[in-house]
Amino acid sequence: MDSATRSCEELSDDNVWLDLPQIPDIPNQRANSMNMDTIQKQKNPIVDQKSNVTCEYMENASISSCCNVETPKKDQSREALRKKKEKVEGVQYLPNYGINQDFNSSNTVDFVSLNESKMVFFDLETSGLNATADILQIAAKSGDYIFNVYIERLQEISASATKITGLHSIDGKLYYHSKLLETCTQENALQAFNLFLKKLATHCLLVAHNASFDRPRLLRLILKHGMIEPFYIISGFSDSLAVLKKALPDRKGPGKFKLSTLYNDFLTTDNVGDSDKMFHNAEFDVVALEKLVHHLQIEDKLFLHAKTLQISLIELEKNNKMDISLQELSSFKNIISRNVLKKIAIAGFTSDSLIEIYKSAGKAKIIELLSEKVDGKARVTKDKKVLNKIIHHIISLL
Protein backbone atom coordinates (compact mmCIF):
# COMPACT_ATOMS: atom_id res chain seq x y z
CA MET A 1 0.00 0.00 0.00
CA ASP A 2 1.24 3.49 -0.89
CA SER A 3 2.45 5.43 2.16
CA ALA A 4 0.06 8.24 1.31
CA THR A 5 -2.90 5.91 1.78
CA ARG A 6 -1.97 4.20 5.04
CA SER A 7 -4.43 4.47 7.91
CA CYS A 8 -3.62 6.90 10.68
CA GLU A 9 -3.30 5.27 14.09
CA GLU A 10 -1.64 6.11 17.39
CA LEU A 11 1.90 7.40 16.89
CA SER A 12 5.06 5.82 18.22
CA ASP A 13 8.70 6.95 18.27
CA ASP A 14 9.95 3.39 18.03
CA ASN A 15 9.13 2.54 14.44
CA VAL A 16 9.32 5.57 12.20
CA TRP A 17 10.53 4.29 8.81
CA LEU A 18 8.34 5.22 5.90
CA ASP A 19 8.23 4.23 2.23
CA LEU A 20 8.33 7.21 -0.07
CA PRO A 21 5.52 8.12 -2.50
CA GLN A 22 5.87 10.20 -5.63
CA ILE A 23 5.57 13.97 -5.42
CA PRO A 24 5.19 16.48 -8.23
CA ASP A 25 8.39 17.45 -10.02
CA ILE A 26 9.03 21.19 -9.79
CA PRO A 27 11.22 23.00 -12.32
CA ASN A 28 14.27 24.54 -10.66
CA GLN A 29 14.98 27.18 -13.26
CA ARG A 30 18.26 29.05 -13.25
CA ALA A 31 18.41 32.44 -14.93
CA ASN A 32 18.43 31.28 -18.54
CA SER A 33 18.00 27.50 -18.56
CA MET A 34 15.18 24.96 -18.49
CA ASN A 35 16.93 22.06 -16.69
CA MET A 36 14.79 20.04 -14.26
CA ASP A 37 16.04 19.02 -10.82
CA THR A 38 16.41 15.35 -10.14
CA ILE A 39 14.61 14.56 -6.94
CA GLN A 40 16.19 11.59 -5.18
CA LYS A 41 14.16 9.71 -2.61
CA GLN A 42 15.29 7.43 0.19
CA LYS A 43 13.73 5.98 3.29
CA ASN A 44 13.77 8.46 6.08
CA PRO A 45 13.08 7.99 9.82
CA ILE A 46 10.76 10.88 10.53
CA VAL A 47 7.28 9.77 11.54
CA ASP A 48 5.42 6.61 12.42
CA GLN A 49 4.71 4.25 9.54
CA LYS A 50 1.21 3.83 10.95
CA SER A 51 0.34 7.49 10.58
CA ASN A 52 -0.98 8.89 7.32
CA VAL A 53 1.87 11.21 6.54
CA THR A 54 4.36 11.64 3.74
CA CYS A 55 7.98 12.23 4.69
CA GLU A 56 10.57 12.32 1.98
CA TYR A 57 14.30 12.78 1.62
CA MET A 58 15.11 15.18 -1.17
CA GLU A 59 18.54 16.08 -2.45
CA ASN A 60 18.32 19.77 -3.23
CA ALA A 61 20.16 21.07 -6.28
CA SER A 62 21.96 24.38 -5.90
CA ILE A 63 20.00 27.44 -6.92
CA SER A 64 21.68 30.38 -8.59
CA SER A 65 20.89 33.89 -7.45
CA CYS A 66 19.90 36.42 -10.11
CA CYS A 67 17.94 38.75 -7.86
CA ASN A 68 19.94 41.12 -5.67
CA VAL A 69 18.07 41.41 -2.37
CA GLU A 70 19.92 43.09 0.46
CA THR A 71 20.17 40.80 3.51
CA PRO A 72 22.17 40.82 6.75
CA LYS A 73 25.40 38.82 6.69
CA LYS A 74 24.92 35.26 7.85
CA ASP A 75 27.62 35.55 10.50
CA GLN A 76 25.78 38.46 12.09
CA SER A 77 25.71 38.04 15.85
CA ARG A 78 22.53 37.34 17.79
CA GLU A 79 22.78 40.69 19.57
CA ALA A 80 23.36 42.67 16.38
CA LEU A 81 20.41 40.99 14.69
CA ARG A 82 18.24 41.60 17.76
CA LYS A 83 19.09 45.33 17.67
CA LYS A 84 18.36 45.54 13.94
CA LYS A 85 15.05 43.73 14.45
CA GLU A 86 14.08 46.12 17.24
CA LYS A 87 14.96 49.13 15.07
CA VAL A 88 12.84 47.80 12.21
CA GLU A 89 9.76 46.73 14.14
CA GLY A 90 10.18 47.85 17.72
CA VAL A 91 10.84 45.59 20.67
CA GLN A 92 8.27 42.80 20.65
CA TYR A 93 8.13 42.10 24.38
CA LEU A 94 4.52 42.37 25.43
CA PRO A 95 2.97 41.51 28.81
CA ASN A 96 1.75 37.92 29.03
CA TYR A 97 -1.86 38.83 29.64
CA GLY A 98 -4.97 36.88 28.84
CA ILE A 99 -3.14 33.82 27.54
CA ASN A 100 -4.66 30.47 28.42
CA GLN A 101 -3.28 29.06 31.66
CA ASP A 102 -1.75 26.17 29.70
CA PHE A 103 0.64 28.64 28.04
CA ASN A 104 3.90 29.00 29.98
CA SER A 105 5.96 31.76 28.38
CA SER A 106 9.06 30.76 30.34
CA ASN A 107 9.32 27.71 28.07
CA THR A 108 9.33 29.72 24.84
CA VAL A 109 11.93 31.95 23.21
CA ASP A 110 11.67 35.74 23.39
CA PHE A 111 13.64 36.29 20.19
CA VAL A 112 13.77 34.23 16.99
CA SER A 113 17.45 33.69 16.20
CA LEU A 114 18.85 32.31 12.99
CA ASN A 115 21.55 30.66 15.09
CA GLU A 116 19.11 28.77 17.31
CA SER A 117 16.07 28.00 15.13
CA LYS A 118 15.70 25.81 12.05
CA MET A 119 13.63 27.27 9.21
CA VAL A 120 10.65 25.09 8.29
CA PHE A 121 8.35 26.03 5.40
CA PHE A 122 4.70 25.09 5.96
CA ASP A 123 1.34 25.46 4.28
CA LEU A 124 -2.29 24.57 5.00
CA GLU A 125 -5.26 23.84 2.81
CA THR A 126 -8.67 24.43 4.36
CA SER A 127 -12.36 23.75 3.76
CA GLY A 128 -13.06 27.47 3.35
CA LEU A 129 -11.69 30.94 3.93
CA ASN A 130 -13.46 31.66 7.21
CA ALA A 131 -11.45 31.50 10.43
CA THR A 132 -13.23 28.39 11.72
CA ALA A 133 -12.92 26.31 8.52
CA ASP A 134 -11.39 22.84 8.83
CA ILE A 135 -7.71 22.34 8.09
CA LEU A 136 -7.68 19.56 5.49
CA GLN A 137 -3.95 19.35 4.74
CA ILE A 138 -0.73 20.24 6.55
CA ALA A 139 2.57 20.13 4.67
CA ALA A 140 6.04 21.21 5.72
CA LYS A 141 9.58 21.10 4.37
CA SER A 142 13.03 21.78 5.75
CA GLY A 143 16.09 20.93 3.73
CA ASP A 144 16.00 17.24 2.87
CA TYR A 145 12.83 16.47 4.79
CA ILE A 146 9.22 16.93 3.74
CA PHE A 147 6.01 16.25 5.67
CA ASN A 148 2.46 15.87 4.37
CA VAL A 149 -0.79 14.79 6.00
CA TYR A 150 -4.48 14.98 5.07
CA ILE A 151 -7.09 15.46 7.78
CA GLU A 152 -10.67 14.24 7.95
CA ARG A 153 -13.23 16.95 7.37
CA LEU A 154 -15.74 17.88 10.06
CA GLN A 155 -17.48 20.61 8.07
CA GLU A 156 -18.65 20.94 4.50
CA ILE A 157 -16.01 21.98 1.99
CA SER A 158 -17.05 25.15 0.20
CA ALA A 159 -17.31 25.15 -3.59
CA SER A 160 -14.79 27.98 -3.77
CA ALA A 161 -12.28 26.00 -1.68
CA THR A 162 -12.70 22.95 -3.93
CA LYS A 163 -12.12 25.09 -7.00
CA ILE A 164 -8.86 26.41 -5.53
CA THR A 165 -7.45 23.28 -3.86
CA GLY A 166 -9.03 20.36 -5.72
CA LEU A 167 -10.08 18.90 -2.35
CA HIS A 168 -13.68 17.71 -2.11
CA SER A 169 -15.79 15.20 -0.25
CA ILE A 170 -17.85 12.28 -1.56
CA ASP A 171 -19.85 10.25 0.96
CA GLY A 172 -17.78 11.71 3.79
CA LYS A 173 -14.43 10.72 2.21
CA LEU A 174 -11.80 13.25 1.14
CA TYR A 175 -10.61 13.36 -2.47
CA TYR A 176 -7.87 15.33 -4.23
CA HIS A 177 -9.44 15.73 -7.66
CA SER A 178 -10.26 12.08 -8.50
CA LYS A 179 -7.85 10.49 -6.00
CA LEU A 180 -9.25 9.07 -2.75
CA LEU A 181 -7.17 10.21 0.24
CA GLU A 182 -6.66 8.41 3.53
CA THR A 183 -7.11 10.91 6.34
CA CYS A 184 -6.07 11.37 9.96
CA THR A 185 -7.97 12.82 12.88
CA GLN A 186 -7.00 16.37 13.75
CA GLU A 187 -5.26 15.23 16.93
CA ASN A 188 -3.21 12.53 15.20
CA ALA A 189 -2.22 14.93 12.43
CA LEU A 190 -0.93 17.40 15.03
CA GLN A 191 0.95 14.62 16.83
CA ALA A 192 2.62 13.62 13.56
CA PHE A 193 3.50 17.23 12.73
CA ASN A 194 4.91 17.78 16.21
CA LEU A 195 7.04 14.65 15.91
CA PHE A 196 8.31 15.81 12.52
CA LEU A 197 9.39 19.17 13.98
CA LYS A 198 11.08 17.53 16.97
CA LYS A 199 13.08 15.29 14.64
CA LEU A 200 14.37 18.41 12.88
CA ALA A 201 15.55 20.70 15.69
CA THR A 202 15.09 21.99 19.22
CA HIS A 203 13.40 25.14 17.91
CA CYS A 204 11.79 25.79 14.53
CA LEU A 205 10.80 28.98 12.73
CA LEU A 206 7.68 28.24 10.69
CA VAL A 207 7.54 30.17 7.41
CA ALA A 208 4.40 30.46 5.29
CA HIS A 209 3.47 32.52 2.26
CA ASN A 210 0.68 34.72 3.66
CA ALA A 211 1.25 33.52 7.24
CA SER A 212 -1.56 35.80 8.43
CA PHE A 213 -3.87 33.10 7.03
CA ASP A 214 -1.98 29.96 8.08
CA ARG A 215 -0.59 31.00 11.48
CA PRO A 216 -3.86 31.67 13.38
CA ARG A 217 -5.57 28.61 11.91
CA LEU A 218 -2.74 26.30 12.95
CA LEU A 219 -2.62 27.83 16.43
CA ARG A 220 -6.40 27.55 16.85
CA LEU A 221 -6.22 23.84 16.03
CA ILE A 222 -3.32 23.33 18.46
CA LEU A 223 -5.18 25.17 21.22
CA LYS A 224 -8.42 23.31 20.45
CA HIS A 225 -6.69 20.02 21.25
CA GLY A 226 -4.80 21.35 24.29
CA MET A 227 -1.44 20.70 22.64
CA ILE A 228 0.31 24.07 23.04
CA GLU A 229 3.04 22.74 25.33
CA PRO A 230 4.40 20.15 22.83
CA PHE A 231 4.48 22.95 20.26
CA TYR A 232 6.80 25.17 22.33
CA ILE A 233 9.29 23.82 19.80
CA ILE A 234 7.93 26.57 17.50
CA SER A 235 10.14 29.59 18.19
CA GLY A 236 8.02 31.79 15.94
CA PHE A 237 6.42 32.45 12.57
CA SER A 238 7.48 34.47 9.54
CA ASP A 239 5.58 35.58 6.45
CA SER A 240 7.41 35.31 3.13
CA LEU A 241 4.66 37.36 1.46
CA ALA A 242 5.23 40.36 3.75
CA VAL A 243 9.03 40.04 3.54
CA LEU A 244 9.04 39.83 -0.25
CA LYS A 245 6.83 42.90 -0.56
CA LYS A 246 9.48 44.83 1.39
CA ALA A 247 12.38 43.20 -0.45
CA LEU A 248 10.92 43.84 -3.92
CA PRO A 249 9.37 47.34 -3.69
CA ASP A 250 9.43 47.89 -7.46
CA ARG A 251 7.28 44.85 -8.13
CA LYS A 252 3.82 46.26 -8.81
CA GLY A 253 0.49 45.00 -10.07
CA PRO A 254 -2.32 42.64 -9.03
CA GLY A 255 -1.28 39.10 -8.21
CA LYS A 256 2.44 39.88 -8.50
CA PHE A 257 3.16 38.35 -5.09
CA LYS A 258 1.17 35.16 -5.53
CA LEU A 259 3.46 32.19 -4.91
CA SER A 260 2.83 30.76 -8.38
CA THR A 261 3.56 34.10 -10.06
CA LEU A 262 6.75 34.66 -8.08
CA TYR A 263 7.92 31.12 -8.79
CA ASN A 264 7.22 31.39 -12.51
CA ASP A 265 8.87 34.80 -12.76
CA PHE A 266 12.06 34.00 -10.85
CA LEU A 267 12.57 30.26 -11.32
CA THR A 268 11.10 29.38 -14.71
CA THR A 269 10.86 30.90 -18.17
CA ASP A 270 7.53 29.17 -18.77
CA ASN A 271 4.60 28.56 -16.45
CA VAL A 272 4.68 25.33 -14.44
CA GLY A 273 1.93 23.25 -16.01
CA ASP A 274 -1.51 24.02 -14.64
CA SER A 275 -0.18 26.37 -11.97
CA ASP A 276 -3.57 27.09 -10.39
CA LYS A 277 -3.99 23.37 -9.77
CA MET A 278 -0.40 22.59 -8.76
CA PHE A 279 0.18 25.61 -6.53
CA HIS A 280 -2.76 24.96 -4.25
CA ASN A 281 -1.59 21.62 -2.99
CA ALA A 282 0.23 22.31 0.29
CA GLU A 283 2.91 19.70 -0.40
CA PHE A 284 3.77 21.30 -3.75
CA ASP A 285 3.64 24.81 -2.28
CA VAL A 286 6.21 24.20 0.48
CA VAL A 287 8.71 22.77 -2.01
CA ALA A 288 8.23 25.77 -4.31
CA LEU A 289 8.40 28.26 -1.43
CA GLU A 290 11.66 26.88 -0.08
CA LYS A 291 13.26 27.10 -3.53
CA LEU A 292 12.00 30.64 -4.00
CA VAL A 293 13.31 31.81 -0.61
CA HIS A 294 16.75 30.31 -1.23
CA HIS A 295 16.83 31.72 -4.75
CA LEU A 296 16.06 35.26 -3.57
CA GLN A 297 18.32 34.88 -0.52
CA ILE A 298 15.84 36.28 1.99
CA GLU A 299 16.44 33.77 4.80
CA ASP A 300 17.91 36.37 7.16
CA LYS A 301 15.06 38.76 6.44
CA LEU A 302 12.57 36.06 7.41
CA PHE A 303 14.28 35.75 10.80
CA LEU A 304 14.52 39.52 11.12
CA HIS A 305 10.75 39.96 10.66
CA ALA A 306 9.64 36.88 12.59
CA LYS A 307 7.01 36.95 15.34
CA THR A 308 7.63 34.78 18.39
CA LEU A 309 5.16 32.11 19.44
CA GLN A 310 4.23 34.21 22.47
CA ILE A 311 3.46 37.29 20.37
CA SER A 312 1.50 35.14 17.91
CA LEU A 313 -0.66 33.73 20.71
CA ILE A 314 -1.29 37.18 22.19
CA GLU A 315 -2.34 38.49 18.77
CA LEU A 316 -4.59 35.47 18.29
CA GLU A 317 -6.35 36.13 21.57
CA LYS A 318 -6.82 39.80 20.68
CA ASN A 319 -8.32 38.81 17.35
CA ASN A 320 -10.57 36.24 19.03
CA LYS A 321 -11.83 38.93 21.41
CA MET A 322 -12.38 41.25 18.46
CA ASP A 323 -14.42 38.56 16.69
CA ILE A 324 -16.59 38.13 19.79
CA SER A 325 -17.10 41.89 20.04
CA LEU A 326 -18.01 42.14 16.35
CA GLN A 327 -20.51 39.31 16.74
CA GLU A 328 -22.11 41.17 19.63
CA LEU A 329 -22.37 44.26 17.40
CA SER A 330 -23.68 42.26 14.43
CA SER A 331 -26.96 44.19 14.26
CA PHE A 332 -24.91 47.21 13.10
CA LYS A 333 -23.37 45.18 10.27
CA ASN A 334 -25.51 46.57 7.45
CA ILE A 335 -25.74 50.04 8.99
CA ILE A 336 -22.10 51.13 9.12
CA SER A 337 -18.81 50.01 7.56
CA ARG A 338 -16.76 47.19 9.04
CA ASN A 339 -13.95 49.65 9.75
CA VAL A 340 -16.23 51.82 11.92
CA LEU A 341 -17.66 48.70 13.53
CA LYS A 342 -14.16 47.55 14.48
CA LYS A 343 -13.42 50.95 16.01
CA ILE A 344 -16.57 50.67 18.14
CA ALA A 345 -15.46 47.21 19.29
CA ILE A 346 -11.89 48.37 20.03
CA ALA A 347 -13.32 51.26 22.07
CA GLY A 348 -15.11 48.68 24.21
CA PHE A 349 -18.71 49.53 23.33
CA THR A 350 -21.39 46.88 22.95
CA SER A 351 -24.95 47.14 21.68
CA ASP A 352 -26.21 47.00 25.27
CA SER A 353 -23.78 49.65 26.53
CA LEU A 354 -24.70 52.03 23.69
CA ILE A 355 -28.40 51.53 24.45
CA GLU A 356 -27.81 52.26 28.16
CA ILE A 357 -25.79 55.40 27.38
CA TYR A 358 -28.57 56.63 25.08
CA LYS A 359 -31.25 55.91 27.70
CA SER A 360 -29.38 57.69 30.49
CA ALA A 361 -27.69 60.60 28.69
CA GLY A 362 -29.27 60.85 25.24
CA LYS A 363 -28.00 61.47 21.72
CA ALA A 364 -25.47 64.15 22.72
CA LYS A 365 -23.55 61.74 24.96
CA ILE A 366 -23.32 59.11 22.20
CA ILE A 367 -21.90 61.71 19.81
CA GLU A 368 -19.49 63.00 22.47
CA LEU A 369 -18.12 59.54 23.30
CA LEU A 370 -17.79 58.31 19.73
CA SER A 371 -16.22 61.52 18.35
CA GLU A 372 -14.00 62.33 21.34
CA LYS A 373 -10.34 62.68 20.38
CA VAL A 374 -7.94 60.00 21.58
CA ASP A 375 -4.27 60.51 20.66
CA GLY A 376 -5.35 63.21 18.22
CA LYS A 377 -7.95 61.09 16.40
CA ALA A 378 -11.67 60.52 16.89
CA ARG A 379 -12.31 57.50 19.10
CA VAL A 380 -14.67 56.08 16.45
CA THR A 381 -15.72 58.79 13.96
CA LYS A 382 -16.68 62.45 13.70
CA ASP A 383 -18.65 61.95 10.50
CA LYS A 384 -22.13 63.32 11.26
CA LYS A 385 -23.87 61.02 8.77
CA VAL A 386 -22.28 57.93 10.33
CA LEU A 387 -23.05 59.14 13.87
CA ASN A 388 -26.70 59.71 12.92
CA LYS A 389 -26.90 56.19 11.43
CA ILE A 390 -25.55 54.76 14.69
CA ILE A 391 -28.04 56.74 16.80
CA HIS A 392 -31.02 55.84 14.59
CA HIS A 393 -30.05 52.15 14.86
CA ILE A 394 -29.74 52.41 18.66
CA ILE A 395 -33.25 53.89 18.76
CA SER A 396 -34.53 51.00 16.62
CA LEU A 397 -33.13 48.55 19.21
CA LEU A 398 -35.07 50.10 22.10
Q: What's the topology here?
A:
Elements (H helix, E strand, L loop, with lengths): L52 E5 L20 H12 L28 E9 L8 E8 L2 E6 L8 H7 L1 E4 L2 E4 L2 E2 L5 H15 L3 E5 L2 H14 L9 E6 H8 L11 H9 L7 H4 L3 H15 L2 H6 L2 E2 H20 L9 H9 L4 H21 L1 E2 L2 E2 L5 H14 L1
Parallel strand pairs: 2-8, 8-9
Antiparallel strand pairs: 1-4, 2-3, 3-4, 5-6, 6-7, 9-10, 11-12
Helix pairs in contact: 6-8, 12-13
Distinctive features:
Exonuclease domain-containing protein, hydrolase, single chain, alpha+beta, Nucleotidyltransferase, domain 5, disordered N terminus, magnesium, globular, nuclease, 13 helices, seven-stranded mixed β-sheet, three-stranded antiparallel β-sheet, RNaseH_sf, 398 residues
Question: According to CATH, what is the topology of the domain at 112-308?
Answer: Nucleotidyltransferase, domain 5
Largest sheet entry:
7 strands, mixed
As laid out across the biggest beta sheet, the strand order is 1-4-3-2-8-9-10
In total, the number of strands is 12
Rg is: 24 Å
Broad CATH class of the domain at 112-308: Alpha Beta
- Which band does the percent of strand residues land in? 5-15%
Q: How would you sum up the global shape? A: globular
Mean pLDDT value:
78
Structural category: alpha+beta
- Low-confidence runs of at least 5 consecutive residues: 1-7, 10-51, 56-78, 85-101
What is the helix fraction of residues, given as a range? 25-40%
- In angstroms, what separates the terminal alpha carbons? 65 Å
The CATH superfamily of the domain at 112-308 turns out to be Ribonuclease H-like superfamily/Ribonuclease H
